[in-house]
Design brief:
globular
Length: about 200
């Protein structure tokens, strides 16, 4: 199996529309017709409740972990740390792209936050776990998933750039892009939060 095949596989894994399948199979509805219309974990919490919201979030995180870990199928990456990190980022981004533009759901998906978290868990677990703690504390304190996601993404960037001082340029750039992307995709939520 070569790199391109794994990238395509990562995209297909990321494309699994967990919230859509759950809403249809369990509730007989299409979650895209309710709440914000976004088929992500945030809207799932809002429409289907905390139990199924948590299920969708964990599933979407797992997609990111599995997709980013596909590098293990190519022996070369097991022995080359720099190449491995770069390829893991490519695989993870393919999964995130799949989540945002899923082939299984008319290319209309979620915002990719949970899948990004899964990607981070696979690449740098300690940083990801800290972000999860920040996310959970914010969620339990404010009850706003969007605010929790934005704070966690900003903390992720700060940890990579300054606290852990990650040397790999591609990972530093990725951390910056993640923070910007999460905040930009939550623009509507920021307005609601301010109101």
């Amino acid at each position: 199996m070569n790199e391109m095949m794994l990238v395509v596989l990562a995209y297909l894994l990321g494309s699994i529309p967990t919230s859509i399948w759950v809403s249809k199979a369990v509730f007989g509805i299409d979650i895209r017709n309710y709440g914000s219309g976004n088929p992500g974990a945030t809207n799932t919490f809002r429409v289907l409740g905390s139990k199924w919201g948590a299920f969708v979030m964990i599933a979407d995180i797992t997609k990111g972990v599995i997709a980013t870990s596909l590098y293990i199928l190519i022996p070369f990456y097991l022995q080359n740390e720099l190449a491995r990190t770069n390829f893991m980022i490519v695989l993870g981004l393919a999964a995130v792209l799949g989540h945002i533009f899923p082939i299984w759901a008319d290319f209309k998906g979620g915002k990719g936050v949970a899948t990004i978290l899964g990607m981070a868990l696979a690449i740098q677990p300690i940083v990801a776990l800290i972000c999860i703690i920040v996310f959970l504390i914010t969620l339990f304190t404010t009850r706003f998933v969007s605010l929790s996601s934005m704070l966690a993404s900003i903390v992720f960037m700060v940890l990579i750039l300054f606290i852990f001082n990650e040397k790999e340029t591609s990972y530093r750039v990725f951390a910056i892009i993640v923070a910007i992307m999460v905040v930009v995709t939550h623009q509507k939520n920021i307005g609601r939060l301010l109101n």
